[in-house]
Amino acid sequence: MTVTLDDIRAAAERIRGHVVETPLLRDELLSARLGQPVWLKCEYRQTTGAFKLRGATNAILSLPPEALTRGVVTASTGNHGRALAHAARALDVPATVCLSRLVPGNKVQAIRDLGAQVRIAGASQDEAMAEVARAVAQEGMTEIPPFDHKAVVAGQGTIGLEIGTAEAVLVPLSGGGLAAGVAVAIKALAPGTRVIGLTMENGAAMAASLAAGHPVEVTETASLADSLGGGIGLQNRVTFALCRALLDDVILLTEAEIAQGIRHLGRAGHVVEGAASVGTAALLAGKVVPQGPTVCILSGANIDPALHARIMAEAA
Predict the structure, then answer these.
(1) Are both 153 and 198 inside the same structural domain?
(2) I want to staple 221 with a disulfide (CB 3.0 to 4.6 A). Which of 16, 56, 202, 258 is the partner?
(3) Of 52, 107, 150, 187, which residue is the catalytic one?
(4) Whole-number pLDDT of residue 1
(5) Mean pLDDT of the chain
(6) Where is the Tryptophan synthase beta chain-like PALP domain (predicted)?
(7) Do the domain assignments include residue 102?
(8) Could you tell me if 132 and 155 lie in one domain?
(9) 299 annotated active-site
(10) Which pLDDT does position 102 carry in this prediction?
C-alpha cells in the first residue's frame, strides 16, 4: 500500500494542535428508524469548515525546510485551496492557489483573506493546473495536490483513527483522498468493518473509474453534491488503487436523495453541503442497510445559505 496505518498515525501526531478533533454525535432519529446506532462524524465543524485541513496541514508539515522557504502551490475549486491557505498561514509558509475564472468570487476572496497569493489562470481546472506546473518548474514551489498525494491521504485518514468501533463507515467519495485515507485506517484496525463510498449519480469520476478498472474521464454535471465532482487524474498514483483495494461498495445517489439527506441533517441542527449528506441520504433511501453501529462522515459545511433554505422548505 502507498499509505499505511503507520503513516496515518504519524500524521495524527504531526497535525495535533493544528486541527480540531471533531465530535462523533448520535443521530437519534435515524437510529430509532433503522434499529441500529447511527453516528455522525461532524467533520464540517473543522476549522475551515471541511475535512481538507487535515491533509493540507500534514502535507506542509512533511516538507523539508528548503521546500517551505520556496513555498507551496496548488490548484483548487475552493475547499482545498482554503485549507492549504489556512495551514500555510498558521505555519508561516508562502502559499499560492491557482484558480480558474469559474471559481465563485466568495471562494476566491476567502482564500485571499487567509493570506495566500491567488492566481486566476484560464477558464478550467486544467488551465489552473498548468499554472501550477509552471510555478513548480520555474519558481521552485512544491505542489500539494487536493487528493492524489500520500501525505494528503494520510492526513485525511486521521479521521478514521477518531471513529472507533463500527460495523460500517459511510464516506463521501470524490477524488478519493478522504475515502482512501479513512479506509486504510479502518481496515487496518478493524478488517471486518465495511467502508462504503457514496457519491452522486451523474459525473462521479471515481465510481466510473472503479467500474472501468482504470482511471477515466467523465462529463461533469451540476449536482447538490458539487464538491464530489471533478476528475481523479488519468495518471492517478495513490487514491484509485487504494479505493479499488479497500472500499467494500460504492453507492450512487439521485439529487432528490441528496436533498433529503440535507433536509434530515438540517432538521437535526447540522447545516451541511450536499457532499456531507450522502451517508444519511443512502440510509434514508434504503441503499445502505445498517447491520450494526454505522458512522456517516459529514465532510463539509460549504453550502450557499439561500440554497440550503430552499431545500429545507421543500416537501420531504
Answers:
(1) yes
(2) 202
(3) 52
(4) 63
(5) 95
(6) 16-300
(7) yes
(8) no
(9) yes
(10) 78
CATH classification at residue 158: 3.40.50.1100
Hey, what amino acid is at 7?
D
List of residues 6+ apart from 183 with CB closer than 8 A: 160, 171, 195, 242, 243, 246, 247
**71, 96 in Cβ contact below 8 A?**
yes
Give the model's pLDDT for residue 251.
98
Domain count, the chain: 2
The residue from 104, 123, 140 where one domain ends is 140
- Residue-level pLDDT at 50: 94
pLDDT score for 316: 55
Give the list of residues 6+ apart from residue 33 with CB closer than 8 angstroms, or none: none
Query: Which segments within the chain are labelled E, that is strand?
Result: 24-26, 38-42, 72-75, 95-99, 117-120, 142-143, 168-172, 194-200, 249-253, 294-298
Q: What is the pLDDT of residue 252?
A: 98
Catalytic residue among 76, 100, 227, 299: 299
Residue 41 annotated in active site: no
CA distance linking residue 287 with residue 309, whole number of Å:
26
Other CB atoms within 10 Å distance of the CB of residue 256: 12
The answer to whether residue 59 is domain-embedded is no
Same domain (yes/no): 230, 170: yes
Q: Looking at the domain assignment, is residue 58 inside a domain? A: no
Whether residues 158 and 245 fall in one domain: yes
Q: Check the CA dihedral 298-301-304-310 and report its sign.
A: positive
Question: Domain range holding 231?
Answer: 5-50+149-313
**Exposed / middle / buried, residue 236 (Cβ in 10 Å: 0-12, 13-18, 19+):** buried
State whether residue 272 is helix, strand or coil. Answer: coil
Low-confidence residues of the chain, pLDDT below 50?
Answer: none
- 232 and 257 fall within a common domain: yes
Task: For residues 137 and 135, give the distance between their C-alpha atoms in angstroms, rounded to a whole number.
Answer: 6
Evaluate whether residue 66 is within a structural domain.
no
* Domain end residue (candidates: 140, 175, 192): 140
What secondary structure does DSSP assign to 121-164, as a single string? Answer: -SSSHHHHHHHHHHHHHHH--EE--SSSSHHHHHHHHHHHHHH-
- Angle, CA of 88, 91 and 94, to the nearest 5°: 45
So what's the pLDDT on residue 150?
98
